[in-house]
Amino acid sequence: MGDAVLGFAVAERVYRDHPGLPEGQLALIRAAVVSTPALADVARSIPLGEALRLGRGESSTGGNDKDSILADALEAVVAAVYLDGGPAAVRTVVDRLFADVLADSAVDPGLHDFKTRLQELAARRSDPPPRYVLTDDGPDHDKRFHALVEVAGRSYGPATGTSRKRAEQEAARLAWDAFEHPSPVEAGTPTTGQEST
């Protein structure tokens, strides 16, 4: 239920914000906002993962920070909000929690693609999922986020952004580019944990 309710509320908000855009562009923005990586980022901003009670297996493998689990949990929260408060309450949740991802997706609907691509690449290679290491600096009103991504035995970054998701996406892009366009040295070198910038 949560995915359907959220999808409707987001579609309504996207149309309200961008009434002049073609239908295809509106659909791209909506899809970006309700994508698993985007929902996971919103869940982390609450932070929802700290409230999840998982089985021993998932807990031991970092399930509280897995995109798929966080996205499902957020959809469950939205379903509960709908059952308790109806459509108006869901609109309030979307307005408050999704403001950043709505703005980012309107500028670049493909913003979340590189994290997804990198995760799929790791799965195809039978590597562990990418792991993101995040730091930040600066005052609250002008904070900068710095991300490294560890995948296939290497670390890529750091990448900097004005939000966590932008920094992580840029780090994922660096890693993706390195896999797609390896240098001659990297192509002949086993993955041994060296850092790539």
Explain the overall architecture.
With 197 residues, the chain is α+β, with helices and mostly antiparallel strands. The protein folds into 2 domains: 2-107, Ribonuclease III domain (Ribonuclease iii, N-terminal Endonuclease Domain, Chain A, Orthogonal Bundle); 113-196, Double Stranded RNA Binding Domain (2-Layer Sandwich). 58% of the residues lie in helices and 13% in strands. The chain has a 4-stranded mixed beta sheet. It is globular, with a radius of gyration of 18 Å. The model is unreliable at 185-197 (pLDDT under 50).
Low-confidence stretches: 185-197
Q: Strand pairing plus helix content: what structural class?
A: alpha+beta
Q: What is the CATH H-level superfamily of the largest domain?
A: Ribonuclease III domain
Report the strand count.
4
Provide the CATH architecture of the largest domain: Orthogonal Bundle
Question: Numbering strands along the chain, what is their spatial order in the largest sheet?
Answer: 1-2-3-4
Enumerate how many helices there are, as a single number: 9
The first-level CATH class of the largest domain is given as Mainly Alpha
> What is the fold-level CATH name, i.e. the topology of the largest domain?
Ribonuclease iii, N-terminal Endonuclease Domain, Chain A
- Largest sheet descriptor: 4 strands, mixed
Kindly estimate the percentage of residues that lie in beta strands according to DSSP.
5-15%
The CA-CA distance between the termini, in Å, is: 43 Å
Rg over C-alpha atoms, rounded to the nearest angstrom: 18 Å
Order of helices and strands: HHHHHHHEEEHHE
Tell the overall outline.
Answer: globular
Q: Helix proportion of residues, in percent?
A: 55-70%
- On the 0 to 100 scale, the average pLDDT is 86
Keywords: Cytoplasm, Endonuclease, Hydrolase, Magnesium, Metal-binding, mRNA processing, Nuclease, RNA-binding, rRNA processing, tRNA processing
Protein name: RNase III domain-containing protein
InterPro entries: dsRBD_dom, RNase_III, RNase_III_dom, RNase_III_sf
Region (Disordered): 176-197
